[in-house]
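[agent] plan:
  1. take the single chain provided in the ticket
  2. run structure prediction with default settings
  3. attach structure tokens to the ticket
  4. add a short note for the reviewer (M.T.)
[agent] executing step 1
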Amino acid sequence: MKYMLLLGGDMGPEGRAKNPEMAAAYDRVGKWFEEYTRAGKIVGGHELQGPHTATTVRFQDGKPMVVDGPFIEAKEVIGGYAIIEVADLDEALGMAKSWPGQTTVEVRPIVDHSAD
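[agent] step 2 finished; step 3 output follows
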């Protein structure tokens, strides 16, 4: 079964160089990705650029509006994602619990349209 791990955070890549503790955590994150990719559990994913690079499409009265910024009401931002292929939700949660970034990890199943 495929799941997406949405990896939350509060500091983008620009903060790593300024914060040695964050740089060490980032190294642990890299090792986590390597380990699960080698095991065939992570099948896709990317780190995202900071929220200041976001462009959002919102709909007002059925008409699309393009605006700069993410404009999500939250202190945390999505810093990246991983697409994983595991046996079940328990295995996905096990991976999420081992996330060395120790930030929020949202686990969501991916809809499989091939079964339709």
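[agent] step 4 note for reviewer: Residues 90 and 96 are 10 Å apart (CA to CA).
[agent] ticket updated
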